[in-house]
Amino acid sequence: MKRAFVAALALGCSCATPRPLVRWGDRVDAWCVTGAFIFDGSARQGPMDVFVRGETIDAVRPTTGPKPACLDGRGKTLTPGLIDAHVHLGLSAGHAPWDLRVPDLKQQLDGLLFSGVTTALDAAASRGLDEVLAQEAPFAHLVRASRIITATGGHPAPMIRAGAPWPIADVMLAPMLAPVSSDTTDVGAVLSSVLASKPDVVKVVYDDMPPGSPHLSHPVLVALLSAAKARSVRVVVHVGSATEAIEAAEAGASLLMHTPWESVLTDDEVRRLAATKVPIVTTRRVHGALTEVLEGRVSLHALERQVRPDVEPAIHHRPEGFVMRGLDATQEHALARYDANLQQNVRRLHEAGVVLVAGTDSGLPNVIHGGALHRELQALVASGFTTTQALASATSIAAKVLLPGEHVGVIEPGARADLLLVEGDPLEDLTALEHVAFVWRAGRPVHRAP
Prior knowledge:
By secondary structure, this protein is of the alpha/beta class. The protein has helices spanning 2-10, 105-114, 129-133, 157-163, 168-173, 187-195, 218-230, 242-251, 267-276, 286-294, 302-307, 311-315, 329-351, 371-382, 387-393, 396-402; strands at 22-24, 30-39, 44-53, 56-62, 71-72, 76-80, 82-87, 117-122, 141-151, 177-180, 201-205, 235-238, 255-256, 280-281, 356-357, 419-423, 436-441, 444-448.
C-alpha cells in the first residue's frame, strides 16, 4: 500500500529524464536559410532565402545565389513549425495499457519539439506542468485548457480509473476535473472556478465514454456556452456522436475536439455542421491506433521510435488474458468500426468545406507526443486531403483557430519564427516531414539529440 501511495504522489512530477531529446542552441540576433523551398502556410515557393531577426521573420526573398553566411537549405524544405491541436500531457507517453509508467512531462514536451511541433493545445489541466515549464529548457508554445467541465462521474473519469489503479487514478483526476452534478448547477460558479488558473480555453466534455456513463445535459451545455460567450471565453468541446457535435456547435462551441466517430454522418448532419462554421479537430488516427495495439500489429515510424524507444517492445507482448478494464469485448471490437467511420467523416466534412484542424489526442496508447502528428497528417492524406491541405491543417489553419491575433503558422515577414527544416519535399512525399534537419522556436535554434 505504501508503494502505491508513493507512486501516486510521483504522478505529474517533473521527473528527470535520462536522455533529454532537445536543448537550446545559442541565441543569435540574426540568421538566414538560403536555397530552400518553403511551404509558406498555403503553397510551395522557391527556392527562397529566409532571414530572421530576433524572434520574427525579417524577409523572404527568391534565392539569387550562394550565401556563405546562411544555413544551406538546398534539397530541403522550410515550413512553419507544426501545431497539434489536441495533446494530453501527464497521461501515457504512448505505452500499451498493460505497460503502466509514471508520466514524464518533460520527456513528453521534448517529444513535441524533437518532432517539429512548436505549438500544441494541452487539452486538460496537467498536474505539475507549471513546475516543468519553469525550467530553462526549450518547450513548445502551449495553448492550455482549463480543468475539464464534465458530468459527475463522466468522461474521462471512468477511462482513467479503468486504466490506472487506485489511488493513482484519483491523484491524476483531482487537478483535471471540474465535475457538474445536476441541471441546477450554477454554471457561473463553475466557470469562475476553472478560470481561476487563467487557462487559454475552457474544456467541456459532452459525451458518455464508455457508453452509459454520466453525460452532461444539453441545458447545462447551452448555459455554459452562453455564460462563456458573455465573458468572451473560448470553449472547446469533446464530442463523440453526430448529435453531440451538432448540439455543441449550434450552441456556440469555439472548437470541437474530435471528429464524430460513433456513426457515419448523414448528408443532413454534414450540412448542419458545415453551417455552424465551427472548426473541428481531426483526431483521425486515434481509434485505429488503439486497435493496432490490441491486435498486436503496431509498427512505429523511425521518428516515433526516436522519441519513445521503450514503447514498441511492450506493445507486442500483450499478457495472456489481458482485458482492458472499462472496455468490454464488444466495445473493443467497435474500435475498428469507429476508425472506418472516422475515415469517411473526415473526408465528407473536408469536402463540405468544414475547417479541420490537425490534432492527435497524444497521451493514448500508440499515440506518441510529436511523432503522432506526422502519422495524423498521413492519415488525412489517406482521407482525401492533398499534402498541401494536410500541412496547412497543422500550420496556418491551426494557427488561425488556436492563436487568433498572433502572427504565426506562416512564413512571411513579421511572423514568429517557429520554423522546421526537413530533408526533401513533403508536398511531394509527406513522409519527408519526418526527416527533421533543424527546429527553431521563436527564432532560437533547438538542438535535437542525435
